[in-house]
Design brief:
The protein is mainly β. Among the domains are: 1-112, Phage tail protein beta-alpha-beta fold; 645-682 and 688-803, no CATH class; 816-928, no CATH class. The chain is 8% helix and 50% strand. The chain has a 22-stranded antiparallel beta barrel. Residues 24-75 form the Secretin/TonB short N-terminal domain.
Amino acid sequence: MHAYRLPAGELSAALGEFAQQSGIQLLYDSTLVSGRRTPGLQGGYSVEAALARLLRDSELEALAVADGTFIVRRLPKPAAKEEPREIRVPVPAPAMTTELSTVTVRDEDFQRLAAQGVTPVTEITREQIDASGYATLFDLLKAQPGMQVANQPEAMASSSDANFRTGAAGAAAVALRRLGSKSTLFLVDGRRIAGYGLAQDGSGTVPDLNAIPLAMVERIQILRDGASAIYGADAVAGVVNVILRHDFSGTEISASAGESARGDAGMQQTSLLWGTRTESGIGLLLNVSYLHADPLLGEQRSWYSLDQRRQGLLDLRSLYSFRGNYLYFGDDGGVRVAAAPGCRTALAADGTCLLDSARYTTLQTGKVGKSVLGRLDVPLGESTRLHLDLRASDLLQRQQAAPSGATVFLPLPREVSAQDPFALLYSFDDIGTVRERTESTLLSVDAGVRGTLGDWNWGADASVQRNRVDDVIDGLVRSDILSIDGEDYSFGEAPPSRALREAMAPQIRRRGRTSLDEFSLDASGNLFDLPAGAASMTAGVEIRREGIEQQPGRELTAGKLLNQPREYAQSLERDSSAAYLKFDLPIVERVDASLAWRLEKTAGFAAHATPVLGLRWAPLDSLVLRASRSTGYRTPTLLELHQPRGVPASSTVWIPQSAGPCAIELATADGQSACQLDISMGGNAALRPEKSVTTAFGAVWAPSATFSLSVDLYRSVRDNEIAAAPLAYVFDHPQQFEGFLQRNGDDQLVAVDNAFANLARTVTSGADAEARWDLDAGNAGRFRLGLGLNYLDTLDRRIAPGVPVSRSAGYADAPRLTGVSSLRWTRGDWSGAAYLRYVGSYELEPYADSASPCPQYKSALGKCAVPPLLLANLNLTYGGIAHWTFTLSVNNAFDRSPRYYDEAAGGYNAAFEDAVGRYYTFRAAYRF
């Protein structure tokens, strides 16, 4: 017998609160309870009686399928004579396309076999988020099996490059199936999110996971399958749906602080979560969070260096140093290098002056983040509800790189001797490091109404999103200024004045903005009865407008900065619309089918249809077999279509003589000519959408209420991939690239105006596996074990027809095996968790049989392959004091330092390795 006090109101909210008060697990399809009301519950009842009262007059019932586990389902029809099976439970179709999973699990993360759908869905619950030990959504997602880092906040972290690279600095993005960020669709509460304000490169934007504080996330759903039929373009590899915390009663205040075992990389985080529901059913929620994180520089970690002799590897510190190195003509016709007088970085034994750019480089950005989430939920009659969501965030980040470097050619006397230097390899150390400050702001407003009409559920939703980034860069050196007001830059002989420094390295500004406006209508319900159950349908229409605006500063548009390409101002917009249908058909007993079809029209392109077919068969009560075949597509981005043509760069290119003659021919050999050509790159308005086909087969075995295992095999083929056209292919197929080859009045080849083209192809295949095991050990407590694995069998890329395929699985940044496992324990007021991340070994070569094989000296040391990575996060929580919980977390508990054998990357691969080391975090939360 339990004492309950649940007010009348929305059924879904009441069931969630009931599950928490009762300590039970409730499983139900969200469409069953959407729009339904409950009379509430007051007094003492058994669990079964309380559920019956909550579901009174709702045409629903709760069926016990195991101790402490109930499934909510429709009441059987009076004519039905067969008793319901304990495990075989039909699950109706989802009410709207924003639900990736057909079942909501309360209080536990274990999903019954009855909840398994046609396509595999991984759900990361709030409990799993807390157990992981990660502080950001980006860190949590990049640790998931099979995830690829598509963009990281530290734009320079993995390259140790002294030359700053402008781009989507500050953005954090991941991707599924190693098909790139443009093929993974990210949703927040089922709605697309606007891209980061700064373009990642010349081809488009990425979603910024840093704009979503992890403290605001309720759970995450990952659909690892092509889903363009339901969710539209960009869902080629799958969908990641981040569901925010909208359903909460009470007030929770939390604060946490962290620091590495070395006393640096400090972090402080606070959050306030408040929610209530009035007697009239109005729901209110407010979530406010604040984050401050100190930066971590390369000089704070001894292992991060371009000098990797400690691992038996090479010293690749740069000759572009301070005060630099002179180049001389040698007596043997070669070039001799010697340090300029007064080397102030590091003088090597061979007499050269070296600079270790890794020591200057940011390993972890400094962050100051502020976010707010608000929600208003209002009943409109008995079967309709209105909601209004507001989300805003502001994130300030700082990072830096080594000073700019340049080759300075010196004036030579008429009679040149070996004692006269002809060039200086120099780093502008006295001008300062390259420092960047990005501030990204996000505003998202969503309003919607949902209700029921007879047996049908319907909804309408409208949203507006704006993402803006202000980027400020100091330390980039102009190539055209070395003096001002009579003062000459002395290349380190004397410190430059402030005026000269500011003239040589003016503050650079960039601004970017993206926008996304959407409107959608959807409806779902049962169509007719089949022998095995009701056939259901989901239908909907969508309209959206996307826009991007890029405003580089004057110095960037002038193209006068060292080592930096010219940038261009751009402002682009376009509209899209779509209609979709999805049918769920219980064909015969134990066999279900799912059929979806979507028609989408984007401005400038013909309408495109994408069908999906899925089958589900339960030959046993404990076994489900499933298969699906889905088609996908990705419309070219606005930048891929309309990127302005860059400034031509003179290059020496070998071309077939049939493509000539060229104006400047340097050499000929074997039917080819070495020509000096001006090469430029731009967008291509004639691009076509990328297309993909994904086939998947899987099995789910759940022999008991405490154990389940799923294995899914997949193969995805993506054609018409958009990439820069390879020059060799352009020359061999000039008829396909009309206008690319530029000739003078004498019909001589002088330039190539290159562009993006639909030439590439990628094939990827592998297997996903997940296991869940729940063990009650009596007085020792309760244990929950979770395991997720991804095995990458194939990752084959071909840049153009007829070009050899690059087999990349198991090579650079594409390990074959990745996985995570978690062990959670609860006993009384105590709970604990161990979270392990595994990354398998992979070769350093970019792909099999590449033109850049592992060098002999690495092979002799056994360092052609990166060793497996195992990182462990541990935490312990105590909740024995009324209203309080306290958590101590230790990330990278074994203090594993990076082991990566690429000297040019400083011995560090930011996609997988942890740069901070052992890290301690203490969190206190008060709830009332």
